[in-house]
Design brief:
about 450 residues; alpha/beta; 9-stranded mixed beta sheet; 9 strands; about 40% helix; globular
Length: about 450
């Protein structure tokens, strides 16, 4: 998934290995421009534009150049917006005006429900091009309209794990082996906080058990099928058991000073990773790249990855590729989407930037199945994330999921940083959300 979406900012990737394999990725910071989707010449050569945000990994995996070799008459041009929060309003404007759209456009999972409900008629039905059963069961359902139209092909998902500092755990008298750590938090995120209290008793000076209570909150909610909306489309975030659990745990973490109180992907957060003051991070698959990039060589091998707390798998993140009907080359664009999201290409992107495939066919490919992360003490991430991906519950999505999540996260940060009382923070969050969703 992209880091630059609803609270996650540009990323580089951790090095992956199947034997001694290493790979890194460059941060994408380009700006999107008006599409030239009708670009073609008298010889039948065409240009397809792909509009996306953050880092989809296609450039790093050299996939566009490979596609051109397979299809010499097709050149693919990528238009990237660094921040999804800038990208999405522009996409909506383009859809509403019917102009400026690329041949292929990326859609963030937190936006997909709103797009499916309000804009599905403006996209090509990809069910006629892709085999939706190739993806993990819940992924393509997220992009399926009520009439069965599939408007997006899944790119990646964010199965959850726990990233932790082995050296800090050892100094605090906690287990360091990844299986032992997983066992210590097997009871759920409540056990995670208990482990945090143990850590705090002997914590190395200047360190904190977790980076952000809002990150833990997102991990808790992401492990539930019912999050901010019910199956009928009614907002239920005020009464949702997963939201209440996540909020209460976040409030507890803040009150017990188990967190450094740093919103993720801010300058202060990256500085804390570089300094080495954070002992654990709630860690969807794409997070490893952030940690390794910002922590630097000094902490290579000191980080590790364990199974996420609890017995219910969680997903945090993921995107889709869609084909607007307004394009001049929708058939070719749909074939490009099919190729980019096929197992072999998703495996190449995983190798290049660490985002985990949503196409099940990639899981048995050696580059995914045998992947480890040298930076994280050779953690077997191919195995860890594939096991998680297969058991993630099918979540009910709503049109304003991203807005709700971000608003609640902001108030959790206020509890951490400003000492805002939980009741006051909750009222501020719900008042702000109600103004947006009505």
């Amino acid at each position: 998934m992209r880091i630059t979406r609803t609270g996650r900012r540009g990323r580089r990737a951790a090095a992956l290995t199947t034997t001694v394999l290493t790979a890194s990725a460059l941060l994408l910071t380009g700006c999107s421009s008006d599409s030239d989707s009708d670009a073609s010449d008298s010889n039948g050569n065409i240009t397809l534009t792909v509009a996306d945000f953050g880092q989809f990994g296609y450039k790093e995996a050299d996939l566009f150049a490979k596609y051109h070799k397979l299809h010499p008459k097709i050149t693919v041009k990528e238009e990237t917006t660094a921040n999804e929060q800038d990208y999405y309003p522009k996409l909506l404007q383009q859809l509403n005006t019917g102009s400026g759209l690329a041949d292929v456009t990326g859609i963030e999972v937190g936006r997909i429900k709103e797009v499916v409900d309000t804009q599905a008629a403006k996209f090509t039905d990809l069910s006629k091009t892709i085999n939706v059963s190739d993806w993990v069961s819940w992924k393509e359902k997220q992009a399926t309209a009520s009439d069965g139209t599939v408007i997006g092909a899944g790119t990646d998902i964010g199965p959850m794990s726990l990233c932790y500092r082995r050296d800090l755990f050892q100094k605090a008298g906690l287990p360091t082996d990844r299986d032992a750590v997983a066992k210590a938090v097997a009871g759920g995120w409540e056990d995670y906080l208990k482990l945090g209290e143990q850590y705090k008793k002997k914590a190395p000076s200047g360190t904190y058990f977790m980076d952000s209570a809002s990150a833990m909150y997102n991990a808790v909610v992401s492990s539930s099928a019912q999050q901010y909306y019910d199956a009928s489309g009614k907002p239920i975030y005020k009464d949702s058991p997963s939201v209440q659990q996540g909020w209460n745990l976040a409030a507890e973490a803040a009150s017990k000073k188990l967190t450094q109180g740093l919103p993720q992907f801010t300058d202060a957060w990256t500085a804390a990773l570089r300094k080495g003051s954070v002992a654990t991070v709630a860690c969807p698959a794409w997070m490893a790249g952030q940690i390794s990039t910002n922590s630097g060589d000094a902490f290579k091998g000191k980080w590790d990855i364990a199974k996420a707390p609890g017995t219910t798998a969680a997903n945090w993140g993921g995107s889709f590729l869609a084909v607007p009907k307004s394009g001049k080359h929708t058939k070719e664009a749909a074939e490009l989407v099919k190729w980019l999201t096929a197992p072999e290409q998703q495996a190449e992107v995983f190798k290049a930037i660490g985002v985990f495939p949503s196409n099940k066919g990639a899981y048995d490919l050696p580059g995914v199945k045998n992947a480890t992360l040298p930076y994280f003490n050779n953690a077997p991430i191919g195995q860890i994330y594939a096991d998680e991906a297969k058991t993630i519950p099918e979540a009910v999505l709503g049109p304003k999921d991203a807005t709700i999540k971000d608003t609640i996260s902001t108030q959790i940060n206020n509890m951490e940083q400003r000492g805002t009382k939980p009741a006051d923070a909750w009222k501020a969050a719900t008042d702000a959300i109600d103004k947006v969703i009505g």
